[in-house]
Design goal:
heterotrimer; A alpha+beta (360); B alpha/beta (281); C alpha/beta (200); A: 360 residues; alpha+beta; four-stranded antiparallel sheet; 12 helices; 40% helix; 12% strand; C: Rossmann fold; six-stranded mixed sheet; three-stranded antiparallel sheet; 4 helices; 22% helix
């Protein structure tokens, strides 16, 4: 019998022992250590931190190792840990304008104050498998960007009134981990959900807006990546102190807007922010953020990416993965109920047909 | 009890948030209270709503029973029971009669519930109107005005097309004459047990972030039509183990030539009956 | 020097208090006893309710006669004290100077849970005849006698019920005792002479 047998607890224990064994693999191969994951699999660490909404490289590495590299599982582990942490206070908003950038590009201007800084990027690499991958010698060739933080492209456009201002009404933003979701959701709540949303899901949705599912004419106004200070105002001090640095990728996507009766034509923004090297994620997020503003800007809500409830209730991969996989759990009581209905329907049909035949 | 975590895993502010939601839920029977569901160490869809509700209500003196598909030994039931034994150190039991709190997935025990007991249901999709209208903004409006015509129409279309209502489980109910409610995916067989039950019924949907409740002695009516009254599943044979003719049966395929065996889905009920028979013999 | 104290055993006392509140609200008219809490100006049961349910996400409003409890509430529950009745999740008031139920947050038709709970202190609570309660949570009817509540309360309650599913839930407290009136409950006064045939 599948279930309803004694020994469920023993079976679970054995399955977990097997998992631990499979995770470790061949004992002759050394166990990967956390510093190796942090240093050499940084993309995985960044993604796990972003979707878990927890900035801690070491914990992310612990999760990745424990999940045997299954990043969904690692995100889940880190989220479940995050939820148990006490909430001591809220930081000041990050000032990404003061970011020490190690990458900064704009697709909208050939050159601009602060210049185009490529930094470390897969862009323009030829995707040829390198079987002898090794560390390069950087000492001679590669400059390190130490210039002061460049002005933001959005601010340059804003000075001419060509782009909508970034509104700050001073209100306390929603906290999606503390407030139950309600619709319509505020932009702050939407951005939080997108920021921890599944990269693959957002990528596909962002992509769909480029293909006509939703009206969109985006330009990558600015992409910047680097470390920013996290500031906190302790109640007893009354002024902000820096409590650490986080590495983030920020995307300001610039979109055409024809204006309304009250608003002259101007550019509008879609905003994306992700921990670490999260360019694909932040760009997708910015496209979807702009798409989700359709209703607010008086545009038709036609594509899935413009539909708040659709996007926000399906972008979380911890939720999605859990519910899809719950189909593995036994459902035989409900299946029996379905069988009961189906058998009755079939019996009635057969009876009807027999009667019909007898009548003919 | 394992250290490092609070009693019953959740921190006190989270429990307070849940407790406030639970009190609203009992005050507005059948209404879905949104709550700030937390990530639990078990996956969403695997009982996180029920687990959060149980964690919020559980005390040191409780005796907890956990069932899945009516059985105490199914893997998920074992896993959740272990979770609370570990994080809260509470007594657990397989006996419906001895339990003060029963967390369940998909069944209500056959043994009649008693006054003072609390049932905690794990709920996958709390919204009864969800298949008719995917939008929360719209279903909220429908509940606000008790605008349930669409559900009656859906059931009526079933009758017109198939001669009967074809909803097999998670069959919609009207609570205290006001709110339409999903009873969670219990079979129709269990719906009548909800009506005027002496026990308190709490429902938790973790992924969907909703809590709802039916207080004791509250009317819970399965939707139907006068000429097509609500019916429950029935079998033409008793349980092959204990001989019960009035319990919900699981069908077990015994060979590849059409062999079938039917046994009680409620393992505690079945075992109690067998024990009683043995004692009598 | 801070007056008063919190729960002796914060985790388990809060759990026991909550279960008592869950019980009195799911079975209206039943009376429970809450842990003894020493808080300036607040009766013990009201103080236990505050510790069990209020915090930084659930602001409280205090009647001027409970002003001495403000400091205690901020310290032991971490609850913000609001001056606008409508912003309060929990409103603490003595029956003698209670606000109209309609003055509290009522929730809205789509979200009737966004409403306030009124913690109303009265002189005494018992299950002697006085009010006859019926509705969800009651098998037939249940008697509740509330001493020291104004005569207008029943009319106010009638209006509160008429707003269902919006409306206010009430916790009546006397000393360390508490009874619940969820917005669903119907209250009929029991007339003298009728008490002999009360049902339970």
């Amino acid at each position: 019998m599948y279930v309803a047998v004694k020994g469920g607890a023993a079976a679970i224990r054995a399955a977990h022992e097997l998992l631990a064994d499979v995770r470790r693999g061949d004992r002759d191969v050394p166990q990967v250590d956390l510093a190796q994951i942090d240093q050499q699999l940084g993309g995985a660490v960044d993604r796990v931190m972003a979707e878990a909404s927890l900035y801690d490289r070491e914990l992310a590495a612990v999760a990745i190792r424990q999940a045997r590299g299954d990043l969904f599982e690692a995100v889940f582990l880190l989220r479940a840990y995050r939820t148990t942490l006490p909430r001591l206070g809220d930081s000041e908003p990050l000032n990404t304008g003061a970011m020490q950038v190690d990458r900064r590009i704009s697709a909208t201007f050939k050159d601009l104050p602060g210049g185009q800084v490529l930094g470390a990027t897969f862009d323009y690499t030829h995707r040829l498998l390198d079987f002898e991958l090794d560390a390069p010698d950087l000492s001679a060739t590669t400059p390190v960007c130490t210039a002061p933080p460049p002005p933001r492209v959005g601010d340059l456009l804003g000075a001419d009134g060509l782009i909508e201002p970034n509104p700050d009404d001073g209100s306390t933003p929603a906290d999606i981990t503390r407030d139950p979701p309600t619709y319509p959701a505020s932009r702050a709540a939407r951005l939080q959900a997108l920021s921890r949303g599944d990269e693959g899901f957002l990528l596909a949705l962002g992509y769909s807006t480029q293909r006509g599912y939703g009206w969109s004419h985006p330009f990558a106004g600015e992409i910047r990546r680097g470390f920013v200070d996290v500031e906190f105002v302790p109640e007893e001090l009354g002024f902000a102190i820096t409590i650490g640095k986080v590495e983030v990728t920020e995307v300001d996507m610039v979109n055409h807007f024809s204006g309304t009766e009250d608003t002259p034509p101007c550019f509008t923004r879609g905003y994306g922010l992700a921990f670490g090297h999260g360019e694909r994620k932040a760009m997708s997020m910015a496209l979807v953020d702009r798409a989700l503003r359709a209703a607010e800007l008086g545009e038709d809500v036609a594509g899935p990416a413009q539909d708040q409830e659709f996007v926000l209730s399906h972008c979380d991969n911890v939720e999605a993965s859990g519910f899809v996989q719950h189909l593995k759990l036994p459902h035989y009581v409900d299946f029996q109920a379905e069988l009961d209905v189906l058998r009755r329907l079939r019996a009635e049909r057969i009876e009807e047909e027999a009667l019909k035949e007898a009548a003919e | 009890m394992s250290s490092g975590y609070n009693f019953a895993y959740l921190d006190e502010p989270t429990k307070r948030m849940l407790r406030r939601s639970l009190l609203k839920a009992v005050a507005i029977p059948g209404y879905q209270v949104p709550f700030a569901s937390r990530e639990m160490p078990l996956p969403f869809g695997w009982g996180t709503g029920g687990i959060q509700v149980t964690a919020a209500i559980l005390g040191r003196d409780d005796r907890l029973k956990v069932i899945d598909q009516g059985a105490d030994d199914t893997t998920n039931a074992v896993s959740i029971r272990d979770f609370f034994a570990k994080t809260a150190g509470v007594a657990t039991t397989l006996s419906t009669r001895d339990a003060t709190v029963i967390q369940t997935r998909h069944r209500i025990p056959e043994t009649p519930l008693q006054h003072g007991q609390i049932m905690v249901f794990q709920v996958p999709i709390p919204e009864p109107l969800r298949w008719l209208e995917p939008r929360e903004t719209e279903t909220r409006r429908m509940h606000a005005f008790a605008d349930y015509g669409a559900m009656h129409l859906k059931l009526y279309e079933d009758v017109a097309r198939y001669g009967r209502i074809t909803t097999a489980y998670d069959y919609p109910v009207l609570v205290a004459g006001r709110y339409l409610m999903r009873p969670s995916p219990i079979p129709r067989f269990d719906n009548p047990k909800l009506d005027a039950s002496p026990a308190l019924m709490l429902f938790g949907a973790g992924r969907e972030k909703r809590i709802y409740a039916v207080p004791p002695y509250t009317s819970v009516k399965s939707l139907d039509f006068e000429d097509h009254p609500f019916t429950i599943e029935s079998w033409d044979r008793p349980c092959a183990r204990c001989g019960a003719a009035d319990s919900y049966l699981d069908e077990i395929i015994t060979d590849d030539r059409g062999g079938r065996r039917f046994v009680c889905s409620d393992t505690d009920h079945c075992n109690q009956r067998l024990d009683a028979k043995e004692k009598a013999a | 020097m801070l007056e008063g104290s919190g729960f002796e055993d914060p985790v388990h006392d809060a759990q026991r208090s909550f279960r008592a509140l869950l019980n009195v609200l799911s079975e209206p008219g039943t009376i429970a006893t809450l842990p003894q809490i020493d808080a300036p100006s607040l009766p013990a049961a009201a103080a236990a309710i505050a510790l069990t349910l209020t915090d930084r996400d659930a602001p409280a409003w205090l009647d001027p006669s409970f002003a001495a409890a403000a400091q205690w509430l901020r310290f032991f529950a971490g609850a913000p004290i609001v001056t606008d009745l409508r912003e309060a999740s929990f409103v603490f008031a003595p029956a003698a100077s209670r606000p109209q139920l309609a003055a509290l947050a009522q929730g809205d038709p789509a979200y009737p849970d966004r409403s306030a709970t009124l913690v109303l202190t009265v002189a005494a609570l018992s299950n002697d005849p006085g009010w006859r309660l019926s509705g969800p949570g009651i098998n037939g009817t249940r008697d509740l006698s509330v001493k020291g509540i104004d005569l207008d309360f029943l009319a106010d309650w009638h209006d509160n019920r008429a707003r269902f599913p919006r409306g206010v839930d009430v916790l009546l407290v006397a000393g360390d005792r508490v009874a619940g009136l969820p917005r669903t409950v119907q209250i009929e006064p029991v007339h003298i002479g009728e008490s002999a045939c009360m049902s339970r």
